[in-house]
Design brief:
Length: 181
């Protein structure tokens, strides 16, 4: 993963729990680097170990940790170059969701080695959306749920989101139903 994700995890912990907790989490994860360079890539295992240490320290599930982090990511990234790219997508939730691939394409120009996820948005006549998520990385579906919740908050709308029991298509890691409330 690219370092900015790990920077976001660090920011999430230090902002909510303090620097001492961050250092403890790094120690529990066996991660010697407590600072990450945003534009470098790190083995995915580093991020997974950090999430595991967060779960251990705060006695929470990986799903809860990832969802909370996903929602936090929107606020965190707002002050970064990634946040500026998200804003290019528009103000409406559907526009923001639909522009996620464009954002990742722009980032990939600076980081050709990036392996970003892919999203496909379907809007249905009843006002619901289906968001299809593809990624080489396993286990991050709840981060997507948090991200969508964060984007909804950014768009000043309330939503209900759930992961569909099965992905809608072959090659899709997960599909989500999103409904404005």
């Amino acid at each position: 993963m690219y370092g900015m994700v790990n920077q976001g995890v660090q920011s999430f912990i230090t902002k909510n729990f303090g620097q001492a907790d961050w250092l403890d989490i790094c120690d529990r994860a066996g991660v010697s680097d407590t600072q990450f360079e945003g534009m470098l890539t790190y083995p995915d295992e580093v991020t997974y170990k950090l999430v595991g240490a967060i779960c251990e320290k705060y006695d929470m599930s990986a799903e809860d940790a990832l969802e909370n982090f996903g929602a936090y990511w929107i606020d965190f990234s707002r002050t970064t170059s990634v946040g500026k790219l998200i804003r290019f997508g528009g103000q409406e939730l559907a526009d923001l969701l639909d522009s996620l691939n464009d954002m990742h394409s722009r980032i990939k120009r600076s980081m050709p080695h990036l392996q970003p996820p892919h999203f496909e948005l379907e809007e249905h006549e009843d006002g619901t959306y289906h968001l299809h998520y593809s990624s080489d990385r396993e286990g991050l579906e709840h981060m997507v749920i948090g991200l969508v919740k964060g984007l909804a908050k950014e768009s000043s709308v309330e939503i209900e989101i759930s992961q569909d029991p099965e992905p809608a298509y072959d090659g899709v890691r997960a599909s989500f139903s999103v409904r404005l409330v």
